[in-house]
Amino acid sequence: MRHFTSIRQLGSLEEALKAAKYVKENPFADQALGRNRTALLVFFNNSLRTRLSTQKAAMNLGMNVMVLDVNQGAWKLETERGVVMDGDKSEHLLEAIPVMGCYADVIGVRSFARFQSREDDYNEVILNQFIQYSGKPVFSMEAATRHPLQTLADILTIEEHKTKARPKVVMTWAPHPKALPQAVPNSFAEGLDMTGYDFVIANPEGYDLAPEFTRGIKVTHNQDEALEGADFVYAKNWASYEQYGQVLSKDMGWTVTSEKMALTDNAFFLHCLPVRRNMIVTDDVIESPRSLVIPEAANRVVAAQTILKMMLESL
Ligand code: SN0
Asked: Which CATH number does the domain housing residue 109 bear?
């Protein structure tokens, strides 16, 4: 696998989960693989888990790691071609990317949806420029449309906690004050489609995800009905895809409360974090013994290490 931008590139999820299990049990078994190899992690947006877990994963593989926060100390970057650069932007991505490529063996990129143009976001213009111009293998640390490292950690966490072969997993929209990208829910839907789980998405009207991510998946606008008998509840906010980037609702009737969890089959609670407490989920639910948010975050190291290992093996 040269680049990793979507969970679908894994081909066999079963094989990837086996590889992840091995990595989790033997975190330092492949120290020689990354020796004298450099991972460059480029962040256009904030990060806590992705930054630390990917760095840790690379170190476990014996790699050297460099982190660049584009918005903190790097030159302000122009991303459009043809612009007369007489403003505040000092450097063009078209030079910056190949330069970064000179310094790294593998490049991780975080570049969220910018919500200026649905077309640009869904064409992954920033991520694809890294693939096209860096000359190096590139992996997504959440791009405009997907967050595959999160999805791998999510599925791994479900696999570790499920008590039946085909658990019922509900991904529910929940309210949030800001417009958030669709990357996490798109990616989760894409990954869950590769499992044999009973998967349902619940969201208010106007919040249906892009059709390419929900084809063949059950989508309902009735959260209570979806939660019935659920084994796992995955909460997430996202901005509207149809009215692109808009916040159409902050309906607190969609917050995951203990009353909502009582509709489930004693479900586990999942969220990728960071989470707005008492908007997305109440304190009591996230603090309950059924909350898996911390083990889920811990599995981010395993997911990143599994992917980096595959990329190093195909260098
Ligand atoms: C990002 C998102 O895609 O939803 C990253 C999740 C891993 N989340 C946020 O930007 C949350 C920001 C906030 O203010 O709550």
From this structure: 3.40.50.1370
Is 314 within 8 Å of 164 (Cβ atoms)?
A: no
Residue 116 sits in which domain range?
7-146+300-313
Separation of CA 274 and ligand 1 centre (Å): 6
Whether the full predicted model's pTM is greater than 0.70, yes or no, is: yes
**Same domain membership, residue 275 and residue 244:** yes
Instruction: For Cα atoms 64, 65, 70, give the angle at the middle one, nearest 5 degrees.
Output: 155
Q: Residue 184: CB within 6 Å of ligand 1? A: yes
Tokens of 76: 């302000």
Q: How far is the CA of 154 from the centre of ligand 1 (A)?
A: 16
Give percent above pLDDT 90 in the chain.
99
Q: Whose CA is nearest to atom 4 of ligand 1?
A: 180
221 lines ligand 1 (CB under 6 A): no
Dump the DSSP string for 118-164: HHHHHTTHHHHHHHHHS-S-EEESS-SS--HHHHHHHHHHHHHH-SS
Identify whether the C-beta of residue 150 lies closer than 8 Å to the C-beta of residue 192: no
Shortest-distance atom of ligand 1 to CA 236: 4
The tens digit of pLDDT for each residue in 74-103 reads 999 999 999 999 999 999 999 999 999 999
Cβ–Cβ under 8 Å, residues 44 and 111: yes
Q: SS3 for 106? A: strand
**262: CB partners within 8 A, 6+ apart:** none
The total domain count for the chain is: 2
Residue 183 CA, ligand 1 centroid: distance in Å: 10
